[in-house]
Amino acid sequence: MTKPALHTEFDDIAALRAALDQRKVSAVELAQSALDAAQAAQDLNAFLHIDPALTLAQASAADAAIAAGTAGPLAGIPIAHKDAFVTRGWRSTAGSKMLADYVSPFDATVVERLQQAGAVSIGKLNCDEFAMGSGNENSAFGVVRNPWDPAAVPGGSSGGSAAAVAARLVPAATGTDTGGSVRQPAALCGITGIKPTYGTVSRYGIIAFGSSLDQAGPLAASSRDALALLDAMSGFDPRDATSVERCDGAVNEPGRIRRDFDAAQSRYDGAGARPLAGLRIGVPAEYFGDGLAADVQAAVEAALRQFEELGAVRVPVSLPRTELAIPAYYVIAPAEASSNLSRYDGVRYGHRAAEYGDLNEMISRSRAEGFGDEVKRRILVGTYVLSHGYYDAYYLQAQRLRRMIAQDFQRALGEQCDVIMGPVAPTVAKDIGENRDDPTADWLADIYTLGVSLAGLPAMSIPCGFGQGSHARRPVGLQIIGNYFDEGRLLAIADRYQQVTDWHRRVPSKQDA
């Protein structure tokens, strides 16, 4: 019988930290265990760049800090970063040929803060090119495979992060969520992922896709593990113009989310056998329409019944512009992508064509060779909607619709319910290559996640079951949406569910992989 990897022999990050403090295991041993696991799972294609020397140097520093009594809350914990975050030492490619050999001279703020907390990076994780995709099929370095079913996608764009956590290659990983790219892969891989309120986590050093939408978030096995990363990642950053200094009166700093989590848990502890008594769960009718697969609906309904057993009350709500989030997002996001990606011209950095006549031809050929089809598609859409004569008709109208979508959420969360719950995606993970003949089909699968991103709200996905029939090995996720700056309570609510269920503890077997 194969011995489990050392870093998987502990229940969660808290148990890992306790073992490190008690000298039962060293950070170097944990790092080597994770490096070995990543090497053994190359068939998943989750990692793009691993440098054992860099990893073991960080691990040695963590061991020294633990010995000196100066260790941070994540000291010695192996993690990995989505390749949308720039990192010193490791390549930062955003899954694109355009940046195939790029090494950043600085770390993203998220990377920097997690390293300051003591986390040890195992390497960089595969993702859809420039975070554009829902299946991790758009990476220039190949598709990532779902650890539960190698024939299926892991979701995207943070597919490498989700696959690495689901396969227990690392306890947790970073991701980015522009239109659902933390929540959707978390759902399809049976793990926990959270997108915080826009502005609570610095965007500095995230390779930009949609500047008014991009937000970093963690992926982990459980809500408590996600909390450990998110609390360390969050905080005001003067280098990011979109970073907020205060969160509904509270200073935006590490520790804020954990304080809110602990306060919520204290209230729930005092409620006895029905800890969530009085919690109003809004269930949008629009999330349970004809497009929702029967097996996904069954798993989500079972999760909602479990929350009712914990004391929560189900409240019907309406988000009438749910379907309109798709056209609004796919005008705004490509417009911002067109602007952000204009910097990749082959002049300063990035891919440069080998043959060209003049400057214009060099730029044109470099971009044609460096960008993949999905990125080109979105650049073309974005350039069109921003062009003279179409800006008012498309981009301005989409921004107006965005405001109305946010108002729909505020009416529900401000007047009718405390949180909103529903599916993350209409179906379980699709087969690799399933939508090859219809490149925009994946856009429709984001229907339940896009509105949250447009509104800038926090939301998370937790595992709540599996599909049925031929999809019985493919996970289903439950989405929990909260009001602005409500991350701590969302994580506490998810934790109460995870205390009485075991979906988050299930791990793909060797037979699955």
Count the beta strands: 13
Helix content: 25-40%
* SSE pattern, N- to C-terminal: HHEHEHEHEHEEHEEHEHEHHHHEHHEEH
Radius of gyration, whole Å: 22 Å
Main sheet: strand order: 1-3-2-4-6-5-12-13-11-9-10
- Would you tell me which CATH topology applies? Amidase signature (AS) enzymes
Biggest sheet descriptor: 11 strands, mixed
Beta-strand percentage range? 5-15%
Protein structure class:
alpha/beta
CATH hierarchy class name: Alpha Beta
Unreliable stretches covering 5 or more consecutive residues: none
Number of helices: 16
How many domains make up the 3D coordinates? 1
What global shape is seen?
globular
Mean pLDDT comes to 96
- For the record, the CATH architecture stands as Alpha-Beta Complex
Give descriptors for this structure:
513 residues, eleven-stranded mixed sheet, two-stranded antiparallel ribbon, 38% helix
Detailed description of the structure:
The protein is of the alpha/beta class and 513 residues long. It has one domain: Amidase signature (AS) domain (Amidase signature (AS) enzymes). 38% of the residues lie in helices and 12% in strands. It is built from 16 helices and 13 strands. The strands form 2 sheets. Strands 1-3-2-4-6-5-12-13-11-9-10 form an 11-stranded mixed β-sheet, with helices on both faces. Strands 7-8 form a two-stranded antiparallel sheet. The two termini are 17 Å apart. 57% of the residues are buried. The model has no long low-confidence stretch (mean pLDDT 96).
Write the layout of secondary structure elements.
Blueprint lengths: L12 H9 L5 H14 L6 E3 L2 H17 L9 E5 L26 H8 L3 E6 L33 H8 L5 E6 L5 H7 L2 E4 L19 E6 L2 H11 L12 E2 L2 E2 L4 H14 L10 E5 L9 H16 L3 E5 L7 H16 L18 H12 L2 H14 L4 H26 L2 E5 L17 H4 L5 H6 L3 E8 L8 E7 L5 H14 L13
Parallel strand pairs: 2-3, 2-4, 9-10, 9-11
Antiparallel strand pairs: 1-3, 4-6, 5-6, 5-12, 7-8, 11-13, 12-13
Helix pairs in contact: 2-3, 5-6, 7-8, 7-16, 8-16, 10-12, 10-13
